[in-house]
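Hi team, as promised in this morning's meeting, here are the two structures we talked about. I've kept the exact order from the run log so nobody has to guess. The first one is mostly here for context; it's the second one we should focus on when we meet again. Sequence first, then the predicted structure tokens.
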Amino acid sequence: MGANNRFVDENRLKSDIINSLLDFSRYLRADFDQDNGVFKGENTMASDEKGVRTNADLSMISAFLCRYGHESSPELKSMARRSLDYALSTHKAVRLKFCHDGKYWGSVSKNDYQWESSLWAMSVAYSAFFQWDDLSKSERDNVYKLLTAECNYELERNIPTGYIGDTKAEENGWEVDVLAATLGLFPNDALAPRWFKRMREFAINSYSHSSDSLDNTVIDPNYDQTRVKDLYRGQNLYNDYTLQNHGFFHTSYQNVVIQELGEAALALRLFQGKKQKWHSNALLHNCQKVNDEVLNWFSLRDGEQAMPNGNDWSMFLYDQITSYSTLACMLPDNNVNALALETKALNQILRRQQTTSDGSYLLRADVGARRMGVEAHRLMMTWLMHHCFPVGNVDLKEDLWWADFGKAKSKYFPNQNIVCSYGNSSFSCFSWSNGKHSYTGYFAPFDSAHNNIVVPFTAHNTGNFIGWLNVDKRNTNAIPLNDGTVNIPNDGRGWNYRGELLTNDSSLCHKFNIISTKYNKIVFSDSIIALRDVEIVGDFSGLLAISMDPFTATSRHFVTENDSFDTDGAGLRIMNTGWVNIDNCLSVITPDQSTMAFGDITNNNSILTAKLYPLYNDKKRKFNKGELVANSHVIYICNITAEQTRILYGKGIK
């Protein structure tokens, strides 16, 4: 939508989502196994996540389209019903048939449980709700058996906590979901009061923070006098409100709990109707705080959330859209930002879907149909949130919104050792990740046409900016000598990060300094000393990873001191130049070096990525212990043309 148009037209947003999911139904049809009545995945018909989750999510999407998408296809209706029946009949509480690996799936007690099964059961519950009027009594009974078994397991088990390396926030969030879905479908069950109390306890211990232990807030005063601190079991968030999952900070893991808690509130509202017997203020516990203290510092103008450490699944998914929707629809008084970012993220999801030929959401999906199911799941939930908690149309102008939200500012997150900054027209960050053992950063222009030109990239424990050297008979790696030091200027804009690494099996000492300014410029300098006699066989320092993908750009236009050309990133092109400009948007300058290289395109988490090596050198060079190996200087500038770069270089920029 243009800057002078209404920012959010809710009817159009919902229509765009429905049309996208209807297009996705082409993928659903192709993925369905007609012989066995199940959706195919990495391990079709198996009792694990690779089989059950894919089938449950795609069953839910099929059923949603039949109910809300005005999709009257008998084929799609049959797919929804048959895939639901397969999920029901293979659960441990129903046991009508085995999964193909000879097992049942699900959790029925603390002595017989399966990790993540409540997440899959929640999708089964939604699929069943969408088809409820068409289900037989025996099918409804099987839904009841499955969900009550999952919930009764929740009554028996302990509520886990822990925030270092592998938070339990996400896991507790999906336990909330199955309890809410079951309460919504069976609100008058004799066990419903116990499920409700357990649901609140899991909710408080999803985004649980140490301050909760002192919080006297009465959660649901119309129900009882239980306080936040009464339900608090331990923290799943660090003191700065960040979290780690899979050993590192990652905005997808950080935001997903908002989505889960929102989906729980949605299930109670959707399944019970407006007169809810069960509802709780616990379901959005600390969501606003996490958003304000962490996520809003990483949200970019196109709706993406920056990933300082890169990713361990498909990248540029915009799968945080449902977290935006939760905040926008359920906390509307102070979440105009979430609503704005939601619309931007949706536009990017729709644009990425257009790069595929079968209605799927991305090329080269890391886990195939399972990833498609997750993406479609989130779009569906966004539609349902606007359906149940409408916000109406919002006339906020984009330029006015971003002028406030994207104003120059910086923040340091001490518990993750991450610094980030909004400059005048770009975002930058650097992470010293002890959990992931990587030391890397990246930047993103605010211009939506180039927002993803630089890819969050890590390799050999480093990545963007630092890069690496190859040393004969040594592995390429890095370990820290310290925790690095951060400085933010007094005006709160920009940052400076200094660090010292032992690299290549501790044969080199690599000291570096990175300065990010509010003027869209990053300056990298380093000094490398040989700690023993070494032979350098390749220099890839100063690295910058560039996207070369149908979603971003399959060809980039390069201008150098002496040349201009278009490239697809294949091979490795050597350039004799002290500067390069890419797409009249991004420039890299090496005042003391005149050789660069670009290429080495690879699949980086579903995004094709090439590498720019500003300090490239493939000549073999021997150094004695104590000698200076390199003393380099690289300048990165975004939102700059080739001609502007030529002029700056001619003036001797440093």
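And here is the second protein, the one for discussion:
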Amino acid sequence: MTYKKRLALFVGMDSLFVLTAIYLSYYTLHPYFHIFSYPSLLVSSITLLVAHHVFSSIYHLYQKSWRFASVGELISIAKIVTFTIITLAIVQKLALGEVYVRVLMITWMLHIILIGGSRFSYRVLRNLKHRPNTTKKRTLIIGAGSAGTMVTRQLLQNAEAELLPVAFIDDDIRKHHLDILGIPVLGAVSELKEIVEEKKIENILIAIPSLSKKELQPIFNECNKTTVKAQIMPMLEDIMVGKVAVSEFRDVSVEDLLGREPVELDISSISKRITGKTVLVTGAGGSIGSEICRQISKFSPKRLLLLGHGENSIYTIDMEMRNNKENTFEIIPVIADVQDRNRIFDVMDQFKPDVVYHAAAHKHVPLMEYNPKEAIKNNIIGTKNVAEAADTFGVNTFVLISSDKAVNPTNIMGATKRFAEMVIQNLAVRSKTKFVAVRFGNVLGSRGSVIPLFKKQIQAGGPVTVTHPDMTRYFMTIPEASRLVIQAGTLARGGEIFVLDMGEPVKIVDLAKNLITLSGYTVDEIGINFSGIRPGEKMYEELLNENEMHKEQVFPKIHVGKAVLLDMKIVLDLIDGFEDMGLDELKRYLLGYANKKYVESLVEGALV
């Protein structure tokens, strides 16, 4: 129906309702009256009709969508009717000399009933028409607040929705035993399992957008006690900007359970370092490197250099950057190996970047145990090449992506990352370039992470392989790690080792159990096998040893460490002689100088 037709329909209906209300009020008080024997009826009818339409126009009664009518629309109707009756009372006093109070009271009541009833009857009839059918999944809504109510209303009104709300649970005891939109609030989260069984629940929906990551874990633990799938509603911010619909629910993810609350970045300081500048990211095709590129793109650099050895991974991130219409800066893919010193120097000379994020590295602990010389070439010599090129061509800031495994390393990968830190620490002493390292632990979903491995094992029907029941690791999401790396670069003065706050360590076996449950299985169905600790692995990871620890944060979730500065001769001797060393000799050298137990007896260091 067009707006003009709709307007004509409502004006005609309301005119009929207004005249009916005034006529019935007279008839109620004087059942045997004759219309023409009451001149006041004619005056009152005309006044009431004109006043109603005037106030309806003022309060936009004819622009409202009655499909979504609620208390706000009812209040508008009450105001229109009340002001209309007041206007009629004034006219009666002026024109007729008296106010017919009883007539006005009955007219006011009938007026509201007829106008309001005509509007709200549409919603009632529509709800009856779309009455839920029995083929929908019986759904329990966790959270009886405004978000839960909004979701429930959408599900009840949407005939195409697959979910049927049958009950709420909420920890607010004031809501218990109440009905919201006809749906009962049956109890608290602690009663979830019993309610699921009693109400034959087939789906659980968590509808608390304000829920923190920490608060989600106990709720999910209660959901885990059932065999019912749990979903979570989108963030209100995403709904408001139209990114997703209210009814677009998603499964709870490992990131939801292990991630932390996002930290607010210092946008101003990051913009000063990146906006309008040339930025080089090595290892740009990797998990961390590619996410750093995505985060950097938000700050409009002048030029972004995507450097990597693998052409496929660089092609992928290059296409992603170019396909983003918001990226108006120059994007240059650079195929280069950080071990090729001449090539790296040529790149630095040609593009003269202002900021370098060095993410290129070998990171797989077990693989590097079998290939220590490759670890040295890539992690130590590669870092030395990129860092010295940055120093030579006047790069302002150089950020090395390091690892928690560089602390008291028991494996080749960790030891080579500690040697890489030594390289930039020594350069920081004499260079105008600000050299810093950023240490953090495992990132969820990165290449080599246990998450993709566990998912493949679950898809294959299990079992999931965990090295040891007490094995723990720190975890953070790739976007969070990348944002904090960029923020740490703005804090650089030269020589620091920044450490990202990884939160609480997580048992790998608990991670495996959560992932199995999230995949729709039980632990008994998939199974968990313990394979034993692999070569070079630690049971527990560290981010700083006791000699390096600064407990206070220099920025939310960022600490700065006091790292021992070692003689660069140790690094140079390794580079000169590692090709001639045997495997055992090489491991002793690397671990001996990288581990604190040997450092103190070998070198008299200074604190940075």
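Starting points for discussion:
Residues 310 and 335 are 7 Å apart (CA to CA).
Confidence is low (pLDDT under 50) at residues 240-244, 597-608.
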